[in-house]
Every structure is written in structure tokens, then in C-alpha cells.
Design a protein that fits this description.
- The protein contains nine helices and four strands.
- By secondary structure, the protein is α+β, with helices and mostly antiparallel strands.
- The radius of gyration is 24 Å and the shape is elongated.
- It has a four-stranded mixed sheet.
Length: 261
């Protein structure tokens, strides 16, 4: 499952590379296309002009859409950086003690998550779990830490912001699901299934205050107890290939069909 999590993240990275290459290519050629449209419009009939330049109008439309999402990404990135800095201050403020890369914070909200290169866990979690359940949660979070999941989630959030919200959520779910499975597998090499999912269910009871605890509970149960395998959705590969296909198409049909360029 760790391999699948890394593969999904690799697909996201390839999507970003193709997306960036396509946008740069459009940006470099947009002035030429606009100049061609102006020149041809004055000497061609309307029907012929539209037929020979229809794909150029599509390129300009794609450029505008991509520009909107790139602006959205930049805004999201700045907002996320502010939130990370704010969270860091909150963790420092609530810090009770630190042991190696574990940080215990003082809050009634039961939380357990990766932050940068540390595992942050609240004292309220420690109060509701027994010793073996605590070990299960610790090892699960270490599994995330070893796979650099917090960094992957951060970068994926930025990359996937280039897509509409419904597609972003679909692809993000794939990465999170495989990451949770991978962290569970790491923990299950060291604790029993009973202890791990006893801890998960206890945290689930606090879902109103801790919604992340109930994320993908059913899928994780099926994976751990019934060995139900999860496959990478074809949508991950298809969406990743879209900018690559468009990029190739733009290169092939770079000029207008009237041959003026």
C-alpha cells in the first residue's frame, strides 16, 4: 500500500509537470496567436476565419481557464502557509512535553496527526486509550511519518487546486486512502488488529470534535480484516494524462489552418 500511495503521488507530480509545460507553451505563443487572429480577420470571410482559427480560440480559452486556476493555487498556497505557521504557534502554546519526535499538547479535543517531522497527540487521546491502544495510535502515526505523508498531503493539496473541487476531492481521497492503509499496515506489524481498531473506534465516538478519526473507517476495516484490496482508480491516470494530451495537440496544431503564420 505504501507503493500505491507513492505511485498516486507520482501521478500528481507528473500532472503538475505537464500542466506547467502546457501553460508555459501557451503563454509563449499567445501574442503570436492574437496577432494572427487580427491579421486574418481583416482579409478573410467570417465562416472561413472561424473554421481556420477555431482551435486557436480553444487554446486562448484554455489559457484563460488555466490562468484562473494558477491564480487560485497561488492564493491557496499563501493561505496554507499562513495556516501552517498559525498551527505551529498553537502547538507551541499547547505543548506539554516532547519525547523524541512526539509532541503532547494540552487540549480537550482528541487529535493525533503528523506536523512537519513530528507526531502531535493530545493528552485527551492518552486519557481515553489503554496502553496497547496508545501503542497502536503511535505506530500508525509513525507509519505516516516514515512515508512523509504530511508533506505529500501538503503538496497534493496545492497541485490538485489546479482542478475543479469535485475532481480534486476524488483524487485526494485516493491518496489519503492508500496512506491510511499503509500506516495501518505499519502499525499492524507491531500491534494486534484488535488494539488498533479498538483505538480507532474509540476515537470515532468523538467524531463531532474529531472528524478525521472516522475517515475511511469502513474501508480500513475491510482492508485489515477481510484483506479487501483497493486499486488505483483509472481516473487518477486519465486526469493526469489530460494536460499531456492537450500539450501534444497544441504542438501538432500550433498554427492556424489558413497557413498565415
Amino acid at each position: 500500500m505504501r507503493a500505491k500511495s507513492n505511485l498516486v503521488f507520482l501521478f500528481f507530480g507528473l500532472f503538475f509537470v505537464f500542466y506547467t509545460a502546457l501553460y508555459v507553451f501557451l503563454l509563449e505563443n499567445i501574442s503570436v496567436w492574437i496577432g494572427d487572429i487580427k491579421a486574418c480577420y481583416s482579409v478573410m470571410g467570417m465562416n472561413s476565419f472561424i473554421f481556420n482559427h477555431f482551435h486557436i480560440f480553444i487554446y486562448l480559452f484554455i489559457f484563460l481557464i488555466m490562468s484562473y486556476y494558477i491564480f487560485k493555487v497561488l492564493t491557496f498556497f499563501l493561505k496554507t502557509v499562513q495556516e501552517v505557521l498559525k498551527l505551529k504557534k498553537q502547538i507551541e502554546k499547547l505543548r506539554l512535553k516532547t519525547f523524541k519526535n512526539f509532541v503532547v499538547i494540552d487540549t480537550d479535543i482528541p487529535v493525533s496527526f503528523n506536523f512537519l517531522n513530528s507526531v502531535v497527540i493530545s493528552n485527551s487521546v492518552l486519557k481515553i486509550l489503554n496502553r496497547e491502544e496508545k501503542k497502536a495510535v503511535f505506530y500508525h502515526e509513525i507509519g505516516h511519518l516514515k512515508n512523509y505523508d504530511s508533506i505529500k498531503f501538503f503538496l497534493s493539496e496545492i497541485i490538485l487546486s489546479l482542478l475543479p473541487e469535485n475532481l480534486k476531492n476524488l483524487l485526494k481521497k485516493q491518496l489519503i486512502t492508500f496512506s491510511e492503509f499503509s500506516a495501518d499496515m505499519y502499525a499492524l506489524q507491531r500491534v494486534s488488529k484488535k488494539d488498533l481498531f479498538s483505538a480507532v473506534l474509540k476515537l470515532k465516538e468523538e467524531k463531532n470534535k474529531y472528524p478525521q478519526a472516522s475517515a475511511f473507517i469502513e474501508e480500513r476495516f475491510l482492508f485489515a480484516f477481510e484483506n479487501k484490496k483497493q486499486r488505483i482508480s483509472p481516473s487518477v491516470l486519465i486526469i493526469q494524462l489530460i494536460p499531456a494530451v492537450v500539450f501534444i495537440g497544441v504542438i501538432i496544431y500550433k498554427t492556424c489552418f489558413c497557413g498565415a503564420m
